[in-house]
Amino acid sequence: MSYQLNGNTIETTENGYLVNHEDWSEELANVIAEAEGITLSEKAWEVINYLRDEYFNNNGNQPNERNMVKHFKSVWTDLEKVDAKALYEHFPMGPSKQAGKIAGLPETKRKGGY
């Protein structure tokens, strides 16, 4: 599998994760999201940027869904309730894994979100 962007072929693993995280850009994130069948909202971008920040600035940390919910409870104050369902609205195939793929992060091998 690979992605096409501006006439270039971006190499991926068999599951669609980038082989080289330096290939990532916001434009490529939109291409990956389209391949995943989702449109990136403002909150989806917040999740993507949070995951990238955690990975690149926190020793390769890839938060699970429980930790993501905990973080976004303090960030998304405009929502009545922030829970895993709120994250799944933006990434229906799993917030930590699908958002991580779109964010250009390596595939995580852990199971589940909690």
UniProtKB/TrEMBL annotation:
Pfam families: DsrC. InterPro entries: DsrC-like_C, DsrC-like_dom_sf, DsrC-like_N, DsrC/TusE. Its main location: cytoplasm. Keywords: Cytoplasm, Transferase. The keyword Glycoprotein does not apply. It is found in: Cytoplasm. Its EC number is 2.8.1.-. The keyword ATP-binding does not apply. It is an enzyme of class 2 (transferase). GO terms for molecular function: sulfur carrier activity; transferase activity. GO terms for cellular component: cytoplasm. GO terms for biological process: tRNA wobble position uridine thiolation. Belongs to the dsrC/tusE family. Part of a sulfur-relay system. NCBIfam families: dsrC_tusE_dsvC. This is Sulfurtransferase.
